[in-house]
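Lab notebook, page 48
Experiment: co-folding of the full assembly
Goal: obtain a model of how the components sit together before planning crosslinking
Operator: M.T.
Materials (sequences as entered):
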Amino acid sequence: EVHLLESGGGLVQPGGSLRLSCAASGFTFSSYAMSWVRQAPGKGLEWVSAISGTGDSTYYADSVKGRFTISRDNSKNTMYLQMKSLRAEDTAVYYCAKVSDGSNNASPDYWGQGTLVTVSS
Amino acid sequence: QPVLTQSSSASASLGSSVKFTCTLSSGHSSYIIAWHQQQPGKAPRYLMNLQHSGSYNKGSGVPDRFSGSSSGADRYLTISNLQSEDEADYYCETWDSKSRVFGGGTKLTVL
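Observation: model returned without errors.
Model output:
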């Protein structure tokens, strides 16, 4: 059974940093691309970033480009999102999602439960 | 980059059917999309992916009451025999080699 578990969320001041993790199990992690999606309070889903199965290719939404870095450690079955220069508008629940192929150019098929990031002074 | 357009809300009675529309922007009518369900206070759940041809593949455990269809740039999600637990937000998503995008979501109220 596929399982995705996010962690690392919390309260951070504007301008601060935070690293999120997504621990995966139940599938061959290195064979699949992964993505981060966020949801601000009361709002819809917003794609944030994606990474190929090998980790060689990474992609970002314009809203986070230059501030967020996605990575993965296939030996630990874990994906990360390093977030810097955080702003109030980054406040959201952050979800990780599995893609059904090694590249980003494929359907998603599983979601994690999410971790809340609050950016506030 | 494609844009996905969804109606903001829909309502239907218990036991009836409802059909959601997700419209792809001009030049992107051949794109595959995915449908997701998000019940109140819960994480999203993947329902299915849906091709331009109307062919769809459902996720694990998705009931037979959920089906998909397509017409041109429109992608549809139909729920038959509505249950109270179907009251949720429904999002469509599409992607290309370098990005992913979501529609604004449709909130379903089951009367």
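Interpretation: Chain A touches chain B at residues 35, 37, 44-47, 50, 59, 61, 95, 100, 103-114 (CB under 8 Å).
Next step: discuss with group before ordering constructs.
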